[in-house]
């Protein structure tokens, strides 16, 4: 029988002899490894994983920070990643073969797809003809796009389906090829299916259907500009560098190509000398895009890194706890170690034996941890609301995550097992074999080590409690934030008539009819419409010229804006300060009107009434937009989310005067239960247009709740981890004190025999626990005060060094430590002196 087999069999035998220790050790490790594995799986998918294409390290994304003139669409980087389609074609023509092997364009859009007699919403991706070629993707079925599929505006009615959409909607039917799908009322011929596992270039928003970029005006009909408009910056651009081309070399080569393009565009824009210089001096920058376009990652990176740090601390606490248990177990086995050493066993042999036991515990804990991670990952992914833009998360643990779990298991087994193994095999043979136990110095040394481990556990627990307290207070502040909107009893839903072919006039007519029919339903107090949904992290903006306001050079006159319907403010519970709301008399043919919020009134109309005055779209008076008469002023309110600032300039306009209205969100204030009206509202819309999908039907309270989902996730997980850490620290502290009391039983008996009082014994034991807690807590709070600055951007309504939170940490540590110390202390006070004096 091999030595390894002997070690394993002996380890199993010793572990089964101590089932309590074994079970506690495995469960402790399972929680630590499982939590780390689950959070790592999320982090890996969102932040670390490369695009599933060949040589992703060659991919780059193009950026051009600086002024933009005209319309700019931005999902990241303030619009620096958005270019016009003509600009893209210029760059593609002049850089392909010299800097890039391919330069591609992509833009996600919402579409409506009609098939088999029903119309459903889908995620479309407008891509250049060389999109798949640049990414070196191969079709799962049929063919993918080529440059021949990108010819003239509106002429390329071909589509490629994603593998997931093909499987979900068409049962992976191969006969899908050459079938016709109606997308936004335009017939498209399906020519292929993208490869399995391919999700485009943005994680979290996998496209359902790929469409040539030349179909932009049909797929995004609410755009203000045309496809060939150079002042419409809406298109992200990515490229694949030529083999051997470095990022720095490519960026240097692009500048002499980019500058003449900017100069030609500047001539068309007719810019002033100052603006011309700023515009033409812009640089074309490259950023590595092996992970794709980092849209979701911008919001998710910091919360995920914080959670990874917290679960790592939990694992360290688990290892410290187990190391303490092994130190105590090792001391109990010192006679066994001494006998084996006396019989000729080498110390290395015994250390290996003890490490084998630790490794078996680690493997069992790792296996249980993987099962716990799988369950946790399923629970977390299942809890993500559909509107969070985090689609496509896998709930299974792939080989990368499994290797992480295996490495974590082996690492922790060595971490918590090596020091106790070394210490357990360092025994005094003479005193131990005389059956006098370990030497006093050895016992004290073991106690010191366990105390150090407890101090470390308490310190780490204090850090976790501080983080959990800050995130919990942030969530409470967000949930009770003053929104300026009365969200209760309001039901919302969204429709997009423009995506099924309706013109702006038809969409306005639909909104008018739907409003009237919904208002007549029993239980409806009021109803209104907004072109941009509220509390959906979505907004629209423009700059304005206020009447009678002297602007200084370069002043920012940007405002948020949306088109709304009559009774919007009464429906949303936003107070009307002065003037009136919009009415049905405000039409396309009537005077252009608007309503401003208090911030606009204070900023641009201070000391005068804005009612009857005007604002005009655009900075300066050289634009052709007609001035809008201000007919009302409303209170400031939040828009994007509960985190957003309520006091931002906002201009509201009637949807009847929106020349590009294609979609809208309805808001219905009910008399009682708004959720109970969902079916009635859905059927009302379907009667008006059976082909119109109804999306995002939910209460406004639910919408607000979903908008702070990330804060809920971080708060819930951090509080759970902190409580778990506190429990493990309490168990460790209890174990140390119980061990100390057991070792000092004879001493306690002598003290009591000589007249010592139970209160004195209680203070002695509690004092030891208090000292460990105070030292660990002080270290932990000092670390937490420093580390809290790194999470300041995730907080809301609370500072990173909030005194109330840290006071709560001190109180909670005191309660946990008191509970952990009381039982050993009480046991010490019940020692019978006669029994203790005979105690060995």
Summarize the structure.
By secondary structure, this protein is α+β, with helices and mostly antiparallel strands.
Written overview of the protein:
This protein is 49% helix and 15% strand. By secondary structure, the chain is α+β, with helices and mostly antiparallel strands. The strands form four sheets. The protein has a six-stranded mixed β-barrel with strand order 3-4-9-6-8-7. Helix 9 packs antiparallel against helix 14 (440-479). The longest helix has 40 residues, at 440-479. The radius of gyration is 34 Å and the shape is globular. It starts with a helix and ends with a helix.
Portion in strands: 15-25%
- Shape assignment: globular
What's the number of extended β-strand segments?
23
Structure class = alpha+beta
Mean pLDDT over all positions: 87
Oligomer: single chain
Low-confidence stretches: 436-442
Q: What count of helical segments does DSSP give? A: 24
Strand line-up of the largest beta sheet = 3-4-9-6-8-7
**What gyration radius follows from the Cα positions, in whole Å?**
34 Å
Q: Roughly how much helix do the residues carry, as a percent range?
A: 40-55%
The description of the largest β-sheet is:
6 strands, mixed, barrel
End-to-end Cα distance, whole Å, is 40 Å
In terms of topology, how is this protein built?
Blueprint: H1 3-17, H2 19-48, E1 59-63, E2 71-72, H3 85-95, E3 100-115, E4 118-127, H4 131-135, E5 141-142, E6 158-161, H5 163-170, E7 180-183, E8 186-193, E9 209-212, H6 216-219, E10 232-233, E11 237-241, H7 247-269, H8 273-280, E12 285-288, H9 296-332, H10 334-342, H11 347-383, H12 399-424, H13 429-433, H14 440-479, E13 490-495, H15 504-519, E14 524-530, E15 541-546, E16 558-564, H16 568-572, E17 576-579, E18 593-597, H17 598-604, E19 614-617, E20 628-634, E21 650-654, E22 664-670, H18 678-688, E23 695-699, H19 700-707, H20 709-743, H21 745-753, H22 758-787, H23 803-829, H24 833-837
Parallel strand pairs: 2-10, 4-9, 6-8, 16-21, 18-20
Antiparallel strand pairs: 1-11, 1-12, 3-4, 3-7, 3-11, 5-8, 6-9, 7-8, 13-22, 13-23, 14-22, 15-16, 15-19, 17-20, 18-21, 19-20
């Amino acid at each position: 029988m091999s030595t390894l087999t002997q070690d394993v069999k002996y380890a199993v035998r010793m572990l089964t002899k101590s089932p309590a220790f074994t079970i506690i050790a495995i469960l402790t490790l399972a929680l630590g490894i499982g939590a780390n594995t689950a959070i790592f799986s999320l982090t890996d998918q969102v932040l670390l994983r490369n695009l599933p294409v060949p040589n992703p390290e060659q991919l780059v994304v193009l950026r051009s920070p600086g002024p933009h003139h005209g319309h700019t669409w931005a999902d990241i980087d303030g619009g620096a990643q958005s270019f016009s389609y003509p600009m893209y074609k210029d760059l593609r023509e002049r850089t392909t073969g010299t800097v890039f092997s391919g330069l591609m364009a992509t833009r996600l859009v919402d579409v409506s797809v009609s098939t088999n007699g029903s119309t459903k919403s889908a995620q479309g991706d407008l891509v250049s003809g060389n999109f798949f070629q640049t990414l070196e993707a191969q079709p799962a079925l049929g063919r993918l796009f080529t440059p021949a599929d990108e010819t003239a505006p509106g002429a390329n009615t071909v589509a490629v389906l994603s593998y997931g959409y093909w499987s979900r909607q068409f049962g992976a039917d191969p006969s899908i090829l050459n079938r016709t799908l109606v997308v936004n009322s335009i017939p498209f011929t399906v020519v292929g299916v993208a490869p399995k596992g391919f999700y485009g270039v943005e994680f979290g928003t996998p496209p359902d259907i790929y469409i040539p970029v030349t179909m932009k005006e049909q797929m995004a009909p609410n755009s203000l500009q045309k496809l060939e408009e150079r002042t419409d910056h809406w298109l992200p651009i990515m490229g694949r560098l030529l083999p051997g081309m470095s990022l720095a070399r490519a960026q240097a080569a692009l500048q002499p190509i980019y500058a003449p393009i900017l100069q030609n565009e500047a001539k068309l824009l007719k810019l002033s000398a100052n603006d011309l210089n700023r515009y033409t001096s812009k640089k074309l920058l490259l950023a590595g895009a092996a992970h794709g376009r980092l849209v979701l990652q911008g919001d998710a990176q910091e919360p995920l890194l914080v959670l990874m740090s917290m679960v790592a601390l939990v694992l360290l606490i688990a290892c410290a706890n187990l190391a303490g248990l092994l130190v105590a177990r090792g001391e109990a086995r010192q006679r066994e170690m001494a006998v084996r050493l006396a019989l000729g066993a080498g110390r290395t042999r015994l250390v290996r034996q003890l490490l084998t036991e630790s490794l078996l515990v680690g493997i069992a804990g790792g296996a249980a941890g993987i099962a716990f991670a799988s369950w946790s990952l399923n629970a977390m992914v299942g809890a993500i609301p559909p509107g969070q833009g985090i689609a496509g998360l896998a709930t299974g643990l792939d080989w990368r995550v499994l290797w992480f779990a295996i490495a974590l298991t082996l690492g922790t087994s060595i971490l918590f097992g090596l020091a106790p193994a070394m210490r357990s095999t360092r025994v005094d043979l003479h005193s131990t074999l005389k059956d006098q136990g370990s030497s006093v110095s050895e016992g004290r040394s073991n106690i010191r080590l366990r105390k150090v481990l407890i101090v470390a556990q308490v310190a780490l627990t204090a850090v976790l409690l501080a983080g959990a307290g800050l995130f919990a207070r942030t969530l409470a502040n967000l949930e009770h934030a003053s929104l300026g909107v009365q969200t209760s009893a309001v039901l919302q839903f969204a429709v997009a008539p423009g995506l099924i072919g309706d013109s702006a006039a038809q969409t306005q007519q639909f909104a008018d009819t739907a409003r009237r029919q919904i208002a007549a339903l029993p239980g409806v107090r009021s109803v209104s419409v907004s072109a941009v949904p509220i509390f959906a992290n979505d907004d629209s903006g423009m700059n304005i010229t206020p009447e009678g306001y002297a602007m200084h050079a370069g002043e920012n006159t940007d405002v948020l804006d949306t088109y709304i319907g009559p009774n919007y403010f009464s429906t949303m519970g936003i107070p009307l300060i002065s003037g009136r709301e919009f009415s049905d008399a405000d039409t396309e043919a009537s005077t252009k009107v608007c309503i401003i919020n208090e911030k606009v009134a204070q900023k641009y109309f201070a000391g005068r009434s804005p009612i009857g005055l005007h604002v005009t779209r655009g900075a300066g008076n050289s634009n052709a937009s007609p001035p809008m008469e201000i007919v009302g002023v409303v209170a400031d309110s939040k828009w994007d989310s509960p985190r957003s600032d309520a006091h931002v300039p906002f201009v509201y306009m009637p949807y009847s005067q929106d020349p590009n209205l294609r979609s809208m969100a309805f808001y219905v204030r009910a008399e009682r239960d708004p959720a109970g009206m969902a079916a009635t509202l859905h059927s009302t819309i379907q009667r008006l247009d059976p082909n119109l999908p109804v999306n995002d039907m939910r209460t406004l309270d639910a919408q607000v709740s979903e908008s702070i989902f990330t804060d809920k996730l971080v708060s819930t997980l951090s509080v759970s981890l902190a409580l778990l850490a506190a429990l493990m620290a309490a168990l460790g502290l209890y174990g140390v004190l119980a061990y100390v009391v057991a070792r000092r039983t004879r001493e306690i008996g002598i003290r009591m025999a000589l007249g010592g009082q139970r209160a004195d014994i209680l203070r002695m034991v509690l004092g030891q626990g208090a000292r460990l807690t105070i030292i660990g807590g002080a270290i932990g709070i000092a670390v937490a005060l420093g580390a809290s600055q790194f999470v300041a951007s995730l907080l809301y309504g609370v500072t990173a060094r909030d005194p109330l939170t840290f006071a709560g940490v001190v109180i909670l540590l005191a309660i946990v430590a008191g509970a952990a110390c009381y039982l050993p202390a009480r046991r010490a006070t019940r020692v019978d002196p006669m029994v203790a004096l005979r105690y060995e």
